[in-house]
Amino acid sequence: MQHETLLKISGIDKSFPGVKALSNACLNVYAGCAMALMGENGAGKSTLMKVLTGIYRKDAGSIAYLGREANFVNPKQSQEAGISIIHQELNLVGNLSIAENIFLGREFTTKFGAIDWAKMHTEADKLLAKLNLPYSSKQLCSELSIGEQQMVEIAKALSFESKVIIMDEPTDALTDTETEALFKVIDELKKEGRGIVYISHRIKEIFEICDDVTVLRDGQFIGETAVKDLDEDHLIEMMVGRKLEEQYPHLDLPVGDVRLSVENLSGSGVNNVSFELHKGEILGVSGLMGAGRTELMKVIYGALPKTAGKVRLNNQEISIKTSQDGLLHGIVYISEDRKGDGLILGMSVKQNMSLTALEHFSKLGHINQKAEQMVVNDFIELFNVKTPSADQPIGLLSGGNQQKVAIAKGLMTRPDVLILDEPTRGVDVGAKKEIYQLINKFKQEGLSIILVSSDMPEVLGMSDRILVMRNGEISGEFSRSKATQEKLLAAAIGKQ
Ligand SMILES: Nc1ncnc2c1ncn2[C@@H]1O[C@H](COP(=O)(O)OP(=O)(O)OP(=O)(O)O)[C@@H](O)[C@H]1O
Ligand SMILES: [Mg+2]
Fold first, then answer.
1. At residue 274, what are phi and psi to the nearest 5 degrees?
2. 315: left (phi over 0), alpha (psi -120 to 50) or beta
3. Order of strands, sheet of 258-267, starting from the edge strand that comes earlier in the sequence
4. What Cα–Cα distance (Å) separates residue 44 from each residue in 220, 377, 423?
5. Bridge pairing between strands 5-16 and 60-65
6. CB contact set of 112 (below 8 Å; sequence gap of 6+)
7. Which alpha helices (DSSP H) does 35-116 contain, by range?
8. Which of 13, 15, 19, 345 to mutate to test the pocket of ligand 1 (most atoms within 8 A of CB)?
9. Which atom belonging to ligand 1 lies closest to the Cα atom of 40?
10. Whose CA is nearest to atom 7 of ligand 1?
11. Mind giving me the DSSP string for 226-275?
């Protein structure tokens, strides 16, 4: 069946100072279909969508919308024309309610000109119900988790009843149930004849809900293909321009002595947890969202108070009351929420990287700037961070490249224990492998690594041993050779 072309974007160029973000980028959107937009971190996906919706001005190219040339000069215009976008970054106002956020700037009014709260809440509640969300539209957005806020962004995009809906990595922070609800809605939107642009690094999702794929590489259009004519390997090859052998390069090395020992630890959301971590070991921590994995890590490195139990490092009991104490003892935590408490978006790549590692560069309170610059440049090279210079504000880097800087920042303090919480969320397939290879490099040097991840193939592929958490407790432990996806899942939901 031939589907109507809603949107035809061709030959787009866009440069920023020092960066050519797009060069001959193209994208078509068809009515009743979901078009996946794929490409490595920094390939230009978000930029192309920002050019389309009038946030950025294009340098060259053309956009035809519903058969006519369109040049939106601001997001309001594209919105009114029927194009909605759910951005990669959340844009909600925390101290407003869900309903206020959804209808911000276009509140319903009564015939007397007052805000019609009853109608706003009814309409907002309808949208929430459509997405299967159990909360009231009167709730404040600041009380919601990141995943829930993302769902509100989705509800907001739906409220415009647009012809084209763009979703930029919408499932990054969603639980499996939320993702399922979203996919149902996407199916409905397709049936209603709307066109979807779906951006994600999760290849499985593309095969699940998209009809076609457009691939960008270095800002250039590489190809458009029907999903049914593609397999995973071919798609990856289109994105990275080469075949990727072995996605999970696990290093089989004997582990060393016990480095970290956690005994009967309890704290907020954590109940009587004990485990050991060895030198040169990668310990995977699996479990469903909300199982207490992040809380456990936070209690260990001091960001959340512990109520009982002991933590020993190299056989010595240590007292950690703040995350600063954790850092001083060589325990570093890289947050899953890199924008919330990982990085300072207004500061440069260099400043972000060396923020916590400053003592390595300072002598008598003076920062040795030359040394700092050298180490920072080394890390940029080692991590293959896509940036015009170390002085670029980090907020201008693509999402995946921000993540690489967050990990580099942790490693620069030369820790003994590195805790990585969802380290490859939002990271493309090629960069994921680079991150794994770096983790391996540090593992070889004896670093002890805890890998918290919801990505089961990643945990299974990279870990030497795996713990599973459920309701704040350890519900399973598996050696690398014994672990399977089924066993991890059974332990995560308590069916053993
Ligand atoms: N406002 C800006 N100023 C300067 N450079 C920018 C700006 N916005 C994007 N860039 C650069 O343009 C390139 C494309 O970035 P973009 O965010 O579009 O990538 P992406 O494909 O969305 O990547 P990701 O998958 O990591 O989100 C990157 O090199 C990025 O650093
Ligand atoms: Mg992006």
1. -130, 135
2. left
3. 270-278, 258-267, 306-313, 316-317
4. 8, 24, 21
5. antiparallel
6. none
7. 45-52, 75-81, 98-102
8. 19
9. 25
10. 396
11. EGGG--HHHHHHHHHSS----SS--------SEEEEEEEEEETTEEEEEE
Instruction: Confirm or reject: Cβ of 41 under 6 Å from ligand 1.
Output: yes
> Which residue's C-alpha comes closest to atom 25 of ligand 1?
41
- The one-digit pLDDT tens for each residue of the chain (496 residues) are 678 999 999 999 999 988 899 999 999 999 999 999 999 988 999 999 999 999 999 999 999 999 999 999 999 999 999 999 998 777 888 889 999 999 988 888 888 888 899 999 999 999 999 888 888 999 998 888 777 888 898 899 889 889 999 999 888 778 788 888 889 989 999 999 999 999 999 998 999 999 999 999 989 999 999 999 999 889 988 988 876 677 888 999 999 999 999 999 999 899 999 999 999 999 999 998 789 999 999 999 999 999 999 999 999 999 989 888 888 899 999 887 766 667 888 899 998 887 776 665 565 566 667 777 777 888 888 888 889 999 999 989 888 888 888 888 888 888 999 999 999 888 888 888 888 988 998 999 999 999 999 888 899 999 999 999 999 999 999 999 999 988 998 999 887 6
CA distance to 68, 346, 407, 417, 422, per residue, from 413 (Å): 55, 22, 11, 11, 20
Any ligand 1 atom below 6 A from CB of 43: yes
Distance 95 CA to ligand 1 centre (A): 29
Question: What is the identity of the amino acid at 278?
Answer: H
What are 258-261's contacts with CB under 8 Å, separation 24+? 258/315, 259/313, 259/314, 259/416, 259/417, 259/448, 260/300, 260/311, 260/312, 260/313, 260/331, 260/417, 260/448, 261/310, 261/311, 261/312, 261/313, 261/315
Contact 25 CB / ligand 1 (< 6 Å): no
- The ligand 1 atom nearest the CA atom of 45: 21
Write out the two tokens for 196: 């979807």
Closest ligand 1 atom to 42 CA: 19
CA of 290 to the centre of ligand 2 (A): 26
